[in-house]
Structure formats: structure tokens, C-alpha cells
Design brief:
Elements lengths: L7 H6 L19 E2 L13 E2 L1 E4 L2 E4 L5 H8 L2 E2 L23 E7 L6 E8 L7 E5 L8 H9 L4 H13 L2 H9 L5 H24 L14 H9 L1 H8 L3 H4 L7 E2 L11 H4 L1
Parallel strand pairs: 1-2, 5-7
Antiparallel strand pairs: 1-9, 3-4, 6-7, 6-8
Helix pairs in contact: 2-3, 4-5, 4-6, 5-6, 6-7, 6-8
């Protein structure tokens, strides 16, 4: 089984040579899903693994050790984004992800373990270190990257945090998300995302409480599918970083054609 040919923008994202506007000439990815299955996933390693092959390009996700994760968490982002106080899901015009750009880490020469983030066009990354595809956003910091690395399964802890808003104030839910290690701006968009999913997907999520994340064909359960449709696009646009566009394997397995191929070496910042 093979996935459909990659859209041109995805081909660029995956750095696959030979992509063109002609779908018949675009490479296809193998049928395996990319991820790191847990007991909650519903798929095993025969179907989902932290590796992909698209055309002549193969990609194996790096296993990040605790020491590296802790060093990333201890870095300093210069000029971080402000924490939003307005829910982007309530905007009259919803934000759209900038898929023609990449977010780069630029080490600061004047301050140890400090860096800036810069959004640049995908074909002009310059001297920056690409940290994820698409424009920088509220979750683009290396501290937030460390949380993504530390928790291959963020669905379960964030869902538990979101449930705190059902019986208590929203502040409890937000604090719970922040306690996972996120920066304040990133925690806020995760909070807005979970709240929007609760409003839009309560029925499907209640019905899927006992379901695995995915069914044998790889399709998402009703709750995750609803979240993907109703909350995903705004989250991607505002957060900037996702596991998929960062090349990190998670407990939700994704088609290889959706995964950005990246390795993460920030020795210029942390050393």
C-alpha cells in the first residue's frame, strides 16, 4: 500500500528531490505510518515506526536523551513572543499557517545558551538552524521543543489538564499545561486548543473515551479526528511548532507524507 503522491509544498518540506507540479512525477511515501506507538495508540510497530521512506529519501527519527532535553529546556529565547490574551479561535478571520517558510534558531554571540528565532523562506534558510517547518509561532522555542521530545504522548496529559476546566476555573487547566514545561505563550495556545475542542467535539470525545487513538487502518478515533478538523488548523498557524513539522515521532501515528524530515543539533546554542 502506498500513500497518494505528495503535494508540491510537502515535497519541498520533506526536501525530496525531483518534486514537480505534475502529480505523476512526484514521489510517493511507503505505506507505514510515522510515530512511536504506545499502549494507547492502537497500532503496533509493524504499521507505525519512527522512520519513513519517500521516493529515494529515507528518514529515521532521532532518539533524544534526557541530558539533551534538559539542556534545551535551559536555553534562553531572546525577544520571545507575548502570551496571547485573546482566543484565536474566536477571531472573525481565523489565522492560516504559513507553509512556505521555516522557523530557524539563530545563536546569540553575546549571551551563552541564548538564541533568537527567525522566520525565513524555505529556500533561503541562511545560517540559522531549521527547528521546524512553517513560520515561527508561540511554541517554536527550544524549551517547548524539549517538552515535545520529553512527552511522545502529549494527548493524555493535556486531556487531563483540559478536564480541570470542567469542574474548576480555566486557570487550573492552564497552570496544569504550563507545568508540563511549556513556555507561557505555548501553554496558552494549547489551552485555547483544548478548550475549543471541548466546545466543538464534546460528543465525539465522550463517545471515544475507551477507544485507542487509532483504528487498525490508521484512522483517528472520533475525538482526535474532530480535534484535527475543528482545532488543528488554528493551532498549527498560531503555535508554529507541531510534532509533525518538527520531525518528532509521537504516540499518534501519521502518514509519512505529512512528516517533516529534520534532525536537531543545537550544539551551537547549548555548548
Amino acid at each position: 500500500m502506498k500513500n497518494a503522491p505528495l503535494p508540491l509544498a510537502v515535497c519541498i518540506t520533506l526536501w525530496v528531490a525531483g518534486c514537480s507540479d505534475d502529480p505523476s512525477k512526484q514521489p510517493t511515501c511507503d505505506g507505514k505510518f510515522f510515530g512511536l506507538p504506545s499502549e494507547s495508540t492502537g497500532l503496533d510497530a509493524d504499521i507505525c515506526a519512527p522512520e519513513c521512506r519517500c521516493g529515494d529519501v529515507s528518514f529515521v527519527a532521532t532518539i533524544h536523551l534526557e541530558e539533551e532535553i534538559n539542556r534545551l529546556a535551559a536555553t534562553t529565547l531572546i525577544a520571545p513572543p507575548p502570551t496571547p490574551d485573546v482566543d484565536p479561535y474566536a477571531a472573525s478571520v481565523l489565522p492560516i499557517a504559513d507553509t512556505e517558510s521555516v522557523c530557524t534558531v539563530v545563536p546569540d554571540d553575546n549571551m551563552p545558551r541564548a538564541y533568537r528565532l527567525e522566520t525565513v523562506r524555505a529556500d533561503t534558510a541562511g545560517d540559522g538552524i531549521i527547528t521546524h517547518f512553517n513560520a515561527c509561532g508561540l511554541c517554536s522555542s527550544l524549551q517547548d521543543l524539549s517538552v515535545y521530545m520529553r512527552y511522545p504522548d502529549l494527548t493524555t496529559p493535556v486531556r487531563a489538564c483540559a478536564m480541570l476546566s470542567v469542574t474548576g476555573p480555566d486557570e487550573d487547566s492552564l497552570a496544569c499545561i504550563a507545568d508540563l514545561g511549556f513556555t507561557d505563550p505555548c501553554a496558552k495556545i494549547w489551552f485555547y486548543n483544548s478548550r475549543n475542542t471541548r466546545y466543538e467535539c464534546l460528543g465525539p470525545c465522550l463517545a471515544a473515551l475507551e477507544d485507542p487513538y487509532q483504528f487498525p487502518d490508521g484512522s483517528l478515533n472520533g475525538c482526535l479526528a474532530c480535534d484535527e478538523e475543528k482545532s488543528g488548523p488554528v493551532f498549527k498557524a498560531v503555535a508554529g511548532r507541531t510534532r509533525r513539522n518538527t520531525g518528532l515521532a509521537s504516540a499518534i501515528c501519521r502518514p509519512c507524507a505529512e512528516v517533516g524530515h529534520l534532525t536537531h543539533d543545537y550544539s551551537a546554542v547549548v555548548d
